[in-house]
Amino acid sequence: MARRLAEHGAVVVDSDVIAREVVAAGTDGLREIVDAFGTGVLRPDGSLDRPALGALVFGDTAARRRLEGITHPRVRARSRELAAAAPPDAVLVNDVPLLVEVGLAPTYHLVVVVETDRDVRIGRLVRDRGMTEKQAMERIAAQADDAVRRAAADVVLGNDGDLADLHAAVDRLWDRLVPYEANVRYRRRAPRPAEVSLTGADPSWPDQARRLAERIRHLVRDPDRRVDHIGSTAVPGLAAKDVVDLQLSVSSLAEADALADRLTDGGFPRLPGDWWDSPKPPDSDPARWTKRLHVNADPGRPVNLHVRVTGSPGWRCALLLRDFLRADEAVHAEYLALKQGLAERSATVDEYAEAKEPWFDTAYDRARRWADRTGWQP
Fold first, then answer.
1. How far is 19 from 17, CA to CA, in rounded Å?
2. pTM of the model
3. Cα(153)–Cα(31) distance, rounded to whole angstroms?
4. CA 157 → CA 29, 153, 198, 317, distances in Å?
5. 7 & 154 share domain
6. pLDDT at residue 54, rounded to an integer
7. Which end of the chain is more exposed for a tag (fewer CB within 10 A), N or C?
8. Which residues have CB under 8 Å from 352's CB, separation 6+?
9. How many angstroms separate the CA atoms of 294 and 69, rounded?
10. Residue 338: which domain range?
11. Around 361, how many Cα atoms within 13 Å sit in the side-chain half-sphere?
12. Which Gene Ontology biological process is one annotated for this entry (predicted)?
């Protein structure tokens, strides 16, 4: 995959190549490995005997962690150097075999996983890397399994078939990456269609929201920051526009403003101007319903990121209506019918959103009574 992206013009930072460079003969990295594992991991010419080292570490978790403590910091440092040297308009591709294992997925704008059947992988390691079947199986066992990799991936590409099929999938991905890079660089949103288009409930929406939330927590440098999946895509079984709505909780709008550049650089540009939610009775003061709004630079994943002050009316309303729709089947069906009818009659997204507001006013009052009955808390 990386090779095909490079053919398109991407700058590829290959962690596997770097991992070999930082332990080449004469490097501090190799000397530290020898200190840790002995001279038995050296070839007669003084270079690293990788199969010998692999035999020591891939069946021994503690030994593998010790090796990673030597190599990973060096690989990360060299990767940063290469990334910094890339042209400012480059599509930068970090080829990181252990991306999931070391927890780096949220640090990138987009994560692509190439998935291959286990038996095919074993065959390739034996054929291309000179491993025994046992060594190949130990190598795979030391890595994250397919389910964990898929959970971290924004895009999954299959690589069991013909190389031409993989290249075609990478070519389609390139058509997404080029405008994504430009949007991030120019700090602008990805275009969206003006017309309303509802889609059936997508069971992958919650996982997409989780990955986006992890990326946002990384950007705001707070792993415990509250980021909630809200809106229609957060309600199981509800048809919706294919836009993931998220709510980032902040202590104040001043904090929201301080975080704006980090979010924008990370692929969530802030929309200019003043934004607020439609006030719901009995609290009709628009000033209490203000917020900041960020959207997506990625043309392949529409996002609305609502940045609201914790405990504010708009913050509470978003969570309350979501949970009310999840809990009450009759309200769920009522809202679904409304959405479908309005989508058929509305010419634009703005008209569609405005036409839903009267229903939300009454639904909010019902939701408040439901919250009182059930003891709901946000």
1. 5
2. 0.90
3. 36
4. 34, 10, 26, 39
5. yes
6. 86
7. C
8. 196, 342, 343, 346
9. 37
10. 205-374
11. 11
12. coenzyme A biosynthetic process
